[in-house]
Amino acid sequence: MPRKTSNSKAGLLLSLGSSAVAVVRAVKQVRRAGATQGKLTAAHTLAGVLPLVTSALLVLRRLRRHSRQHHR
What we know:
Elements: H1 9-36, H2 39-70
Helix pairs in contact: 1-2
C-alpha cells in the first residue's frame, strides 16, 4: 500500500531531513567504494544515490510550493 504524502510543513521538513541523511550516507559509501574497490562497484553505489537525490529534490520542491501557498 503506498504511503500517504504529508502536506504539513513539519512532515515535509522531516522527509527532507531523512532524505538528506540518506544522501550523506550514500555519498560516504561511494567514496569508500571508489577508494577501495573497482570502478564498477563505485558506479553501482552511485546509481543507488540517484534515487535518494531525486527524492530529496522532490520533497524540497513540495516544501517550496507549500511555502508559497501560505504566503499568498
